[in-house]
Design a protein that fits this description.
Layout lengths: L1 H9 L10 H26 L5 H25 L6 H24 L7 H20 L5 E3 L2 E3 L1 H54 L11
Helix pairs in contact: 1-2, 1-3, 2-3, 2-5, 3-4, 3-5, 4-6, 5-6
């Protein structure tokens, strides 16, 4: 759905109507893609059909969907979505992917924090609002007006702050695990070196009975 989303948001001729057809279609595509992405993971865990290919493609598709949506919004609605904000949001995704890769090489994993789960929900809502705001800065509901422009502005700033806090939280979790692993390795190396020194100091006939 990512190419379809980019095509709809970037198109100026196919959806030239003044009634918000493009905004409704783009927001619908994005929300549907987000729902199916979450549903796919839920069904895979429930049916115990988790595969290596799925573990590789699921986070990749997730990040590709978010990155393409925000990057296209810089062109589609620059009044609300600034380029530097998108750099911060996508930079957080690159940071998390890099830390996960290092963690996998070191033999441990970092569980998703509550910040990451909240961030995903906020991203879906913020992207949809920013798309709709392009056509409807305000929506009248009876005698009341919903300030969509204000909601979009607050939402994108909240998204930036959430990305920064989530990046710090993820890095802290990564650093604590790396620190514990380094401490364990040093302790094992220290114990082994003590045993080697003890074995070297013992008479040759007693070295075979040294505990391992």
């Amino acid at each position: 759905m990512v190419p379809l989303l980019i095509w709809v948001l970037s198109s100026h001729h196919q959806f030239a109507g003044a009634h918000g057809e493009r905004e409704l279609l783009a927001s619908g595509i994005f929300i549907l893609a987000s729902i199916t992405d979450g549903l796919d993971g839920y069904l895979a865990r429930k049916r115990q059909q988790i595969t290596t290919m799925g573990m590789l493609l699921d986070p990749l598709a997730d990040k590709l969907l978010i990155a393409s949506a925000f990057i296209t919004l810089v062109q589609f609605n620059p009044r609300i979505v600034a380029a530097w904000m998108v750099v911060v949001i996508i930079g957080r995704e690159f940071l998390v992917s890099g830390l996960r890769s290092i963690a996998a090489q070191q033999g441990f994993t970092i569980d998703a924090s509550d910040w990451g789960k909240v961030k995903m929900v906020v991203q879906i809502v913020v992207v949809a609002i920013c798309i709709l705001e392009h056509q409807w800065p305000e929506i009248a509901v009876g005698t009341y007006f919903i300030p969509v422009s204000v909601l979009a502005t607050v939402g994108i700033w909240f998204m930036v702050m959430l990305s920064l806090v989530g990046a710090v939280d993820y890095f802290a979790a990564f650093w604590s695990k790396i620190d514990r692993q380094v401490t364990r390795k040093r302790r094992r190396a220290f114990i082994l070196s003590r045993r080697k020194r003890a074995a070297a100091a013992m008479p040759p006939e007693n070295r075979d009975v040294l505990p391992t």
